[in-house]
Write a structure and sequence with these properties.
By secondary structure, the protein is mainly α. The protein contains two helices and no strands. α1 runs antiparallel to α2. The longest helix has 98 residues. The radius of gyration is 45 Å and the shape is rod-shaped.
Length: 130
């Protein structure tokens, strides 16, 4: 296996090529073992950076997974609060309607009594006129 087999596997491989080509291309300046050490050091730094990026992505995913139930809980809570308000209003309206119905019924009875009294008095007026 050559050094090409030890290249890091990450999405942005193009970013490491200029550095690797600079290290390989500068053989006249450095000893071969120094070049290999620099190359491996750069490779380790890139691997570490990739690992940190993956950890950050995992943390973001975990935060999103935690926020999703909280958001769902808040949405459900708001919906239940609206339903409770609607039910409370309906209950109050129904109670008021029952009171109103009872009052209307009492007024109808009173109206019927007055109508009967008026009819009785009208009959008396007719009798007196004859």
């Amino acid at each position: 296996m050559g050094e090409a087999d030890h290249t890091p596997h990450f999405e942005n491989r193009e970013a490491s090529r200029p550095l690797a080509s600079q290290l390989v291309g500068s053989s006249s300046k450095h000893q071969p073992h120094v070049q290999r050490q620099l190359f491996h050091q750069q490779e380790q730094e890139l691997d570490l950076e990739l690992e940190q990026q993956q950890q950050q992505q995992q943390q973001q995913q975990q935060q999103q997974q935690l926020q999703t139930p909280l958001l769902q809980h808040a949405t459900l809570h708001a919906a239940l609060a609206r339903m409770a308000t609607a039910l409370r209003f309906a209950k109050e309206t129904e109670a008021q309607r029952a009171v109103d119905d009872a009052e209307v019924m009492a007024l109808r009875q009173e109206c019927d009594l007055w109508r009967n009294e008026s009819n009785r008095l009208w009959c008396q007026v007719k009798e007196l006129q004859q």
